[in-house]
Amino acid sequence: KKKEGVKKFECNYCNKSYKQKCHLTRHLKTCKIKKEKEEIKRLKILNLEIELFKLKKEANISNKSNTTTNNISNNTNNNNSTNSTNNTNSNNTVNINNNIILNDYGKENIDFLKDQKYKKLISGILKHGINGMQKYISYKYCNPNQPENMTIKYTNQRSNKLKVRKNNKWKTRNKRDVLEELYDRDKNVEEVLNVYEHVNDLDETEQMDKIQISFLNMVDNIYDDDEEQNDILD
User: Fold this and answer.
1) 22 in a domain, yes or no?
2) CA dihedral (97, 98, 104, 110) positive or negative
3) Which of 34, 168, 224, 227 has the fewest CB atoms within 10 Å around its CB?
4) Considering the domain boundaries, does residue 134 fall inside one?
5) 100 Cβ contact partners less than 8 Å away, ≥ 6 residues apart
6) What is the pTM of this model?
């Protein structure tokens, strides 16, 4: 019997193997499992876009509401106060408006998540893998309670552009590039794990617990298949 040749090019999606790289490349164009996984990733990015848009809209409404309340309060004070009091109110209004200093995009502050009141939230993020990662991104960039982290201005869902805060200015960027940066696996995983370890007093613990291990496995299942496949084809 003629010996069968070694099949060294394997599809990481369906595990089919081929003798030649060109055959694997051709297979990847029609692999159903690959298409399913890519569709899942596409939907998750789309969900993130929608979530960002919704939360930004809610934050804008909240800010407008606060501004209206301050204006009403100031008008009332102006009608019932002396000039000295009016000057004080005016100064306070300036302080309120200037109190929020936006961080630069990419330098958002996540220390607030290390508060014990977020312990349950962080554990839930890890338990839900990639979906939890999406929630983490929303809390980081779109939290009305942390307006200094709203470093992305996204007002038109149909546009392929958005603006990011850089050096105290708004700069226009390609939306897809920014979303890919938001979904950077290594950065997000490191941040989430550091916060989780802090709120659970695991900073000095060398070994990961079951929740951390499960989280990494779920995230890796989404990202690693594509990376390994690209390595084979390079």
Assistant:
1) yes
2) negative
3) 168
4) yes
5) 147, 148
6) 0.58
Quick one: which of 42, 227, 172, 33 has its CA closest to 50? 42
* Contact predicate 184/191, CB 8 Å: no
Identity at 27, one-letter amino acid code: H
**Count of the separate structural domains present in the chain:** 1
The DSSP annotation for the chain comes to -PPPPP--EE-TTT--EESSHHHHHHHHTT-HHHHHHHHHHHHHHHHHHHHHHHHHHHHHHHHHHHHHHHHHHHHHHHHHS-HHHHHHHHHHHHHHHHS--PPPTT----GGGGSGGGHHHHHHHHHTHHHHHHHHHHHHHS-TT-GGG--EE---TT-SEEEEEETTEEEEEEHHHHHHHHT-HHHHHHHHHHHHHHHTT-TT--S--HHHHHHHHHHHHHHHHHHHHHHHH-
Full domain range(s) for residue 142: 9-67+103-223
C-alpha to C-alpha distance for 5 and 18, rounded to whole angstroms: 10
Q: What CA–CA distances, in Å, run from 220 to 36, 182, 229?
A: 17, 17, 14
List the pLDDT tens digit at each of the 234 positions of the chain: 445 556 688 888 888 999 888 888 889 889 988 888 877 777 666 666 666 666 665 555 455 544 444 443 444 444 444 444 344 333 332 333 446 789 999 999 999 999 999 999 999 999 998 888 888 988 898 888 899 999 998 777 778 898 999 998 999 999 889 888 888 888 999 999 999 999 999 888 888 899 999 999 988 876 665 555 455 555
In a domain, 165, yes or no: yes
